[in-house]
């Protein structure tokens, strides 16, 4: 003799959800998944004010003399490298997330910069670049002239 089981659509939905949870857990949380911060590149902020662009880049572990900063054709490029520490043979890592190797990031700036006046400061792992805008890139204020000829035309329209 066989038993009849009432069909429950929610049970089928939960089975699908459990299967999706297992898929995502094994793909992104399991032992095979390693999050690589270096794939994100150099984290930076770019701020524009009327006179300059200010670029702040996080470069922990990189010495200022190991940085290569170039500006060419409105493209700013920052390159650097962190050296890997020597492993000790009697130690065993349980977690290793610090990144090593070369990093590079290029960004396009929307207007011309005075390349010979770019300033670079480095403090506590943060590179700050000040890129002064070229005169043609600065916003221009246009003065509106008033005079007897303009006032006469305005009064003629009112009549």
Tell me what the structure shows:
It is a single chain. The chain has helices at residues 9-29, 148-158, and strands spanning 44-48, 52-58, 68-72, 75-82, 101-108, 119-123, 126-132. The protein is α+β, with helices and mostly antiparallel strands and 159 residues long. The strands form two sheets. A four-stranded antiparallel sheet has the order 1-2-7-6, with no helix packed on it. Strands 3-4-5 form a three-stranded antiparallel sheet, with no helix packed on it. Strand 3 (68-72) and strand 4 form a beta hairpin. The protein starts with 8 loop residues before the first helix and ends with a helix.
Q: Helices and strands in order, then pairings?
A:
Blueprint: H1 9-29, E1 44-48, E2 52-58, E3 68-72, E4 75-82, E5 101-108, E6 119-123, E7 126-132, H2 148-158
Antiparallel strand pairs: 1-2, 2-7, 3-4, 4-5, 6-7
Arithmetic mean of pLDDT: 78
Low-confidence stretches: 32-40
Give me the strand/helix succession.
HEEEEEEEH
Count of DSSP strands: 7
CATH topology of the domain at 37-135, by name, is Immunoglobulin-like
Percent in helix = 10-25%
Number of helix segments? Answer: 2
Summarize the structure.
This protein has 2 helices and 7 strands; from the N terminus they run αβββββββα. It is an alpha+beta fold and 159 residues long. The N and C termini lie far apart (104 Å).
Question: Which terms summarize this structure?
Answer:
159 residues, alpha+beta, 3-stranded antiparallel β-sheet, 2 helices, 20% helix
């Amino acid at each position: 003799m066989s038993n009849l089981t009432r069909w429950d659509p929610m049970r089928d939905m939960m089975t699908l959800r459990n299967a999706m949870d297992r898929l995502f857990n094994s793909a992104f949380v399991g032992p095979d998944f390693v999050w690589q911060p270096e794939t994100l590149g150099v984290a930076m902020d770019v701020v524009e004010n009327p006179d300059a662009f200010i670029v702040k880049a996080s470069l922990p572990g990189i010495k200022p003399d190991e940085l290569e900063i170039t500006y060419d054709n409105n493209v700013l490029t920052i390159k650097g490298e962190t050296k890997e520490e020597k492993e000790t043979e009697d130690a065993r890592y349980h977690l290793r997330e610090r990144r090593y190797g070369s990093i590079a990031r290029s960004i396009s700036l929307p207007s011309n910069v005075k390349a010979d006046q770019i300033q670079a400061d480095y403090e506590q792992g943060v590179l700050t670049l000040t890129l002064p805008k070229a005169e043609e890139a600065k916003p221009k204020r246009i003065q509106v002239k008033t005079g007897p000829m303009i006032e006469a035309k305005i009064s003629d329209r009112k009549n």
